[in-house]
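Progress note, sequence design subtask.
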């Protein structure tokens, strides 16, 4: 049976996956479908794959609609209003952290070592932010090595896409291929989309099994890592404060909007 509500969920996840700093896994967590998503992906690459179609087809439709309809708008927003846009993302990420901590039952489950793991994961993400690639350069004449880079970029990005706190788009940004990918999506340049898609599928197939194992046998430590990744991404996404009162006021409004969206999405899905 098709879960048609997943079209809306997929649109939220797809929109987040093209945003540097916000993970589709983060949105899945807010929506309350993260465990279901990991289990479905894991089972899809098994003999039970047909049972997952009712979950994945509507989700895929939603993700595709969001990615292909919003990529151009996101390019414009990041070019025209970068600070308010990133403050919206900050609000979404910060609003997700309470949901994750509640899911982990951190007050009872976390011990000293889990807080150390959390801090280490946060520092790792913050350090990764120091190695951003040149997101302004779109690759023009693609060579074999460029396609190889795009394939492995898709592989690494897909790992991040299903892990709360790590943005697949941010991985593409670090590797210096983000602008090339966004341009390919907005212009429907199939050679780039197909090679990137192949890397994404392979990465998800491998990472889903690993995450399924971690959540089953080491849930508290996994939640500590996820929380740390989210906290670290706050520092990475923070764009700084530009000059001008109007810019600051708009950024505050978008930040509060992001917080409110995270709260509303979490409440709706858990009601």
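Output:
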């Amino acid at each position: 049976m098709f879960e048609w509500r997943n079209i809306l969920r997929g649109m939220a996840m797809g929109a987040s996956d093209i945003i540097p700093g916000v993970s589709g896994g983060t949105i899945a967590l807010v929506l309350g479908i993260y465990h279901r998503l990991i289990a479905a992906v894991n089972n899809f690459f098994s003999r039970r794959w047909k049972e997952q179609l009712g979950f994945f087809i509507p989700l895929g439709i939603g993700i595709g609609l969001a990615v292909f309809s919003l990529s151009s708008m996101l390019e414009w927003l990041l070019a025209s209003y970068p600070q308010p846009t990133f403050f919206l993302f900050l609000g979404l990420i910060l609003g997700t952290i309470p949901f994750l901590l509640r899911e982990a039952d951190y007050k009872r489950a976390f011990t000293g070592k889990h807080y150390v793991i959390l801090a280490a994961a946060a520092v790792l993400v913050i350090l990764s932010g120091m190695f951003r690639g040149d997101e302004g350069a779109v690759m023009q004449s693609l060579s074999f090595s460029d396609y190889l880079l795009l394939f492995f970029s898709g592989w690494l990005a897909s790992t991040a896409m299903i892990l709360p706190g790590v943005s697949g788009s941010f991985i593409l940004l670090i590797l210096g291929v983000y602008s090339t990918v966004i341009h390919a999506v907005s212009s429907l340049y199939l050679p780039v989309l197909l090679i990137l898609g192949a890397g994404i599928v392979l990465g998800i197939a491998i990472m889903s099994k690993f995450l399924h194992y971690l959540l089953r046998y080491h849930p508290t430590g996994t939640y500590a890592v996820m929380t740390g990744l989210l906290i670290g991404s706050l520092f990475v996404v923070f764009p700084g404060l530009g000059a001008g009162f109007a810019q600051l006021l708009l950024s505050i409004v978008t930040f509060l909007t992001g917080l409110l969206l995270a709260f509303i999405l979490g409440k709706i899905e858990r009601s």
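The chain is about 80% helix and 0% strand. Work on this subtask will continue into the next period as scheduled.
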